[in-house]
Amino acid sequence: MPHSSWLPSALPPSRRSLDAARILALFAAACRIRAQLRADAQHAPLRGRNLALLLEDPARNECAALERAAGELGARVAHVRYRHRPGAPHADVAPLARTLGRMYDAIDCGTLPAATVREMEAAANVPVYDGLGLASHPLRALGDLMTLYQHPLPPATPPTIRFHGDPASPQARTFVSAARTIGFDVTTAANEAAFVVDGLGAARWPICTCAGTIDETRRADNHRSLIQAVLIESIGCA
Fold first, then answer.
1. Which distant-in-sequence residues (6+ apart) come within 8 Å of 188 by Cβ?
2. Per the count of CB atoms within 10 A, which of 43, 60, 186, 191 is most buried?
């Protein structure tokens, strides 16, 4: 079962294509969910739902952002230890996926390889995520883009972004493509720009603006709210 119409995990990041209407609808859904949670402490649209996080090393807490996002929606989250052994046969993946699919409403595969995620997705019969809350997931890039989209600019300032980094990385492909889709002019040249995004290595990109500092709390909130929008869209309708 595909985990979400927003970001189908069976596709490689280079083929995750979202049109402007869907990107802006996702942003709007994230804002709506955040407002509902703040207005009503008892609002829990995923109460009674169960999410399994497959973790190779639970001590690393790689999925903390997803765990918090799901918990705020009322979902119960369970850590399931699963270590991928390179070169080992995958005969155990489908039986495990079917078992987890009977026990949980959704499965997140954390840092497991894409091939393993696809095998899980094919057999689980519940939504399967490909490390939805990871810093390297394209959804983090969309969260940063959402923050820039919401950031006020001075009058007559065009929405331009100067991007530094590898434009072929999964995050960058998502960010640059989505930014252009919703109307930003993105360049890698050393020109004046409303925003400067430094994608040179750090998982959490430094972002500067000519109009002031970017609200780091809002960046984190947007990322979490986007995760919640995907969870509700997939698990809430499962």
1. 162, 163, 164, 167
2. 186
Domain residue extents for the chain: 13-134+221-234, 138-215
Alpha-carbon span 148 to 142, nearest angstrom: 10
Please give the Cα distance from 198 to 169 (Å, whole number): 13
The residue length of the chain stands at 238
Tokens at residue 134, please? 């990871």
pTM (global) more than 0.70: yes
Dist. CA 114–CA 164, nearest whole Å: 27
The pLDDT tens digits of the residues spanning 187-223 come to 887 778 999 998 886 667 889 887 667 888 999 999 9
Q: In sequence order, what DSSP letters do the residues of 177-238 get, joined into one string?
A: HHHHHTT-EEE-SS---SEEEEESS-SS--EEETTS---HHHHHHHHHHHHHHHHHHHTTT-
Antiparallel, parallel or unpaired: β 128-129 and 185-187: unpaired
CA distance linking residue 182 with residue 174, whole number of Å: 12
For 129, residues 6+ apart whose C-beta sits below 8 A from its C-beta are 3, 4, 9, 66, 106, 107, 108, 109, 230
Please state the separation of Cα 199 from the chain's center in Å: 17
Residue 64 pLDDT? 87
Question: How big is the CA angle at 4 (ends 127 and 2), to the nearest 5 degrees?
Answer: 50
> Six-digit token pair at 71?
């918990």
Class of domain 13-134+221-234: alpha beta
pLDDT band at 81 (very low <50, low <70, confident <90, very high): confident
